[in-house]
Design a protein that fits this description.
This protein has 803 residues and is of the alpha/beta class. Helix content is 38%, strand content 21%. The N and C termini lie far apart (85 Å).
């Protein structure tokens, strides 16, 4: 094509042409030129330059009238702004396109018709630019016209686009930003229209937008044109892909969540020109994902290449064409929020006042929160709870977790630092006061309260809303101690954020949390819904499985994506995943669980842990757990996962379970698979030399080991005073376990509560020479610093001993 005065095709422009064609066009041209050959599909098109805009107004002698319309503008007077904006748009729209410019636009249109077919429809998009500010993108300030066909429709859309430089919002934006209306010009992008009205569209980022975690591509999508997703008007589907394993050749979606996608934006034939409107999305489409796995992986590939090209995290828009069934990238710009976040800051909460203490208990979470109290006396009343309220309850169970996730804070009458409410609050990063005794009767339903867990061991519930502030401390580069400091985690939602803490991996990833939260049903009920007695429960299971071929694929996909997310967050550090460790009463509370579980008077030492796995009553469920872990390690490529068996009572039981795992595709030593066991039963310590032949490491579960060594049920309030991990007998058990591991040259770790709660226990473990201790996220920094001090003392003592 001969050189045009006002037209630049995408293969003629790049990132340095922002002053001529605006940010959007410059970016599209850059990707079209540099990335099309790498498989990133960008619709072809052309830019009508900013000079064309000035030429239109010069030819019509319109500048004087524009000054008259805008010079005395009072931006605070909305009526004046609307009046003047309308006049400015009329002036620009009325300045018809000079013949030579119109001819160049039509000639460029013919070239697109030659490439895509005579019937190609066009998207006409604004790309504003400032002469003196080439970095100004003016995103979203001007108009876009979609699905344009025919010469006159295209020329009219260009005139409307030029006029949209003076929409009320664009005028106001420029005044706010201090830009001169007459030094800003408009370039127009004309490109092949991607018919996402017939398919899907959305936004993607080359990092996680919540945490700033860099190792994933985050994709959102919904049916129809992209406006709804871009504006946040629809609840989209969400997908994650892990960049390091993807780049290494593993093609798997890391994680997905189904959005409601209640409406979709489509075209409506208008009398004069085509317009858009939202229509309800058909129910069957709402219940399935808007993208196939192949689509998601293609988008991830594009996002990785675009990020590599630009050298920093990117925010991109994509659209799938319902006619040619192809995916296109239609915009890319630098991501400027999550990528700037500092992950090296630790927060300390400080009260600015005092008030009446309504109740107190053990503090969890070291934070402060205020909100309206909601006293919930039973599961039946959970629906009354509103996000942002403070949950007050006698105790909590796994069924309550969806509501707990939305709470500002949690207060329970019963429970200690290792109770359900405490574990969940820690993982969610919210404060909890547990074991308050009388909270449900002393805190009034609906009254405002402040929960403080920032004042030491005692957590307090204050009447009213009390001001507080947060002090931030830069962590910087804390040196790594010789003793590995790992993290306990079960909630994939907080994995990316938690991974920013200085750590040596995950010492305990709890499978139960994921089964509770995203599977919800008992594995045997998923496999055998016909054995579920209650018709309502059968219906609930059927609803869970919509969109899945069967209960097995549902369980395997959900569990593998949850564990995979945790493994990806900490990649390539080791992530020790404990196979399911529900007790029978906890399993029974899952959907359909009561039809498959025994009624036990003491579930803590009942049908749990390894005794279940090879047992006919649960072996099929265990098989699903193994298939999910095989998928994480082999399909997803997350080979940093180490598996751990809980509550292995006897050596023969260990052999039976390891044989079952091998039957299900998980053989110790194959593909580098390591298998650990929990050391939480005195027999594990007594027979450690025999157990050590079967496992690659032990993780001491100090909570259960304490209960079973002292014969104390920590949940029984009348004897709970006897529960103490610091007892000499318990410490002796731990010492024998660590020494046994060392003697057998296998890994020793501890994943109980003790070192988090008691600095002296952390010191004891360091002096024993334990390999790792795994802590709750909120105690990682303090314990790491303490461990460094103890190690320095030991080194000093060692040197003085040798001198």
């Amino acid at each position: 094509m001969e050189t045009s005065r006002f037209i630049r095709f995408f293969d003629q422009i790049g990132v340095n042409d922002v002053p001529v064609v605006g940010g959007k066009n410059a970016s599209l041209g850059e990707m079209y030129r540099k990335l099309s050959t790498q498989g990133v599909r960008v619709p072809n098109g052309f830019a009508i330059t900013a000079d064309a805009y000035r030429y239109v107004l010069d030819t019509a002698n319109a500048w004087g009238a524009l000054h008259e319309a805008l010079d005395d503008l009072n931006p605070a007077d909305m009526q004046d702004l609307a009046r003047r904006g309308k006049r400015a748009r009329e002036i620009v729209y009325g300045a018809t396109l000079p013949t030579d410019l119109a001819e160049e636009i039509i000639a460029a249109y013919r070239r697109l018709q030659a490439e895509y077919g005579e019937d190609v429809s066009l998207a006409v998009r604004s790309s504003a630019t400032a002469e003196d500010l080439p970095t100004a993108s003016f995103a979203g300030q001007q108009d876009t016209y979609l699905n344009i066909r025919g010469d006159q429709s295209l020329l009219d859309a260009c005139r409307r686009d030029f006029a949209s430089l003076f929409t009320d919002r664009a005028i106001h934006y420029r005044v706010d930003q201090g830009f001169d209306h007459f030094r800003v010009a408009l370039s127009i992008g004309v490109m092949k229209m991607v018919r996402s009205d017939l398919a899907a569209s959305g936004v993607m980022f080359s990092l996680d937008t919540e945490s700033g975690f860099r190792d994933v591509v985050f994709i959102t999508g919904a049916y129809g044109l992209g406006e709804n997703v871009v504006q946040g008007a629809v609840d989209p589907d969400e997908f994650y892909v892990h960049k390091p394993t993807f780049t290494a050749g593993h093609r798997a979606v890391l994680r997905r969540s189904l959005g409601a996608k209640a409406m979709k934006m489509v075209f409506v034939e208008g009398e004069t020109r085509e317009t858009t409107r939202n229509i309800p999305t058909p129910q069957k489409d709402r219940e399935r994902f808007c993208l196939s796995d192949a689509d998601i992986l293609e988008l991830a590939d594009a996002a990785i290449k675009i990020e590599q090209h630009y050298g920093h995290p990117m925010d991109m828009e994509w659209a799938k064409d319902g006619i040619d069934d192809r995916i296109y990238v239609v915009q890319a710009r630098p991501e400027t929020v999550a990528s700037q976040r500092r992950a090296t800051t630790i927060e300390s909460y400080v009260m600015d006042g005092k008030a009446e203490v309504l109740t107190s208990g053990r503090s969890v979470g070291e934070k402060i929160a205020s909100g309206r109290a909601r006293v919930v006396t039973s599961v039946a009343h959970l629906s009354e709870f509103k996000p942002g309220e403070v949950l007050i309850a006698d105790t909590t169970t796994p069924d309550w977790e969806p509501v707990m996730k939305t709470a500002a804070a949690i207060v329970t009458n019963r429970g200690g630092r290792t109770c359900h409410a405490a574990i969940i609050a820690r993982e969610l990063g919210i404060p909890a006061v547990v074991g308050a005794g009388n909270a449900t009767s002393t805190v009034g339903d609906g009254e405002n309260v402040t929960i403080s867990c920032a004042e030491g061991d005692s957590g307090k519930v204050y009447r009213g809303t009390i001001r507080f502030h947060v002090e931030k401390t830069e962590v910087g580069d804390i040196p790594r101690p010789r003793t590995g400091i790992m993290i306990n985690i079960g909630n994939p939602d907080i994995a990316f954020k938690t991974a920013f803490l200085p750590n040596d991996g995950v010492g305990l990833a709890r499978m139960e949390f994921i089964i509770n939260e995203s599977i919800k049903a008992h594995p045997m009920a998923l496999l055998h819904p016909e054995k579920v007695q209650n018709p309502d429960t059968r219906q609930a299971i059927e609803h869970l499985l919509s969109g899945y071929s069967d209960g097995a694929s549902f369980f395997v996909q959900r569990l593998s994506e949850g564990i995979g997310t945790i493994a990806a967050a900490f990649w390539p550090k080791p992530v020790v995943v404990r196979m399911s460790d529900f007790k029978s009463n906890e399993y029974a509370s899952l959907i359909g669980g009561s039809d498959f579980e025994p009624d036990e008077s003491n579930p803590m030492i009942g049908f749990r842990g390894s005794s279940r796995y090879a047992h006919p009553a649960y072996a099929e469920g265990f098989r699903l757990e193994c298939l999910a872990m095989k998928r994480v390690r082999e399909d997803m490529g997350l080979s940093n996962v180490i598996l751990m068996l809980p509550f292995v009572r006897r050596v023969s039981e260990a052999d039976a379970v390891l044989a079952k795992m091998s039957d299900f595709g998980l053989t110790r030593g194959e593909n580098g698979l390591q298998i650990y066991a929990m050391c939480e039963i005195p027999n594990n310590v007594i027979l450690i030399d025999q157990f050590a032949k079967r496992f690659d490491g032990f993780s001491i579960g100090s909570n259960d080991l304490t209960q079973l060594t002292l014969g104390v049920d920590r949940d029984s309030e009348i004897v709970a005073f006897d529960y103490d991990e610091r007892d000499d007998g318990v410490k002796e058990m731990i010492r024998l376990a660590v020494e046994g591991c060392r003697r057998n040259d296998i890994h020793s770790g501890l994943c109980g509560q003790a070192p988090s709660d008691y600095p002296e226990m952390a010191e004891f473990l360091v002096r024993l020479g334990i390999d790792t201790m795994s802590l709750n996220p909120d105690t990682v920094i303090a314990t790491t610093r303490h461990v460094l001090e103890v190690e320095a003392q030991l080194q000093k003592q060692s040197r003085s001993g040798h001198s």
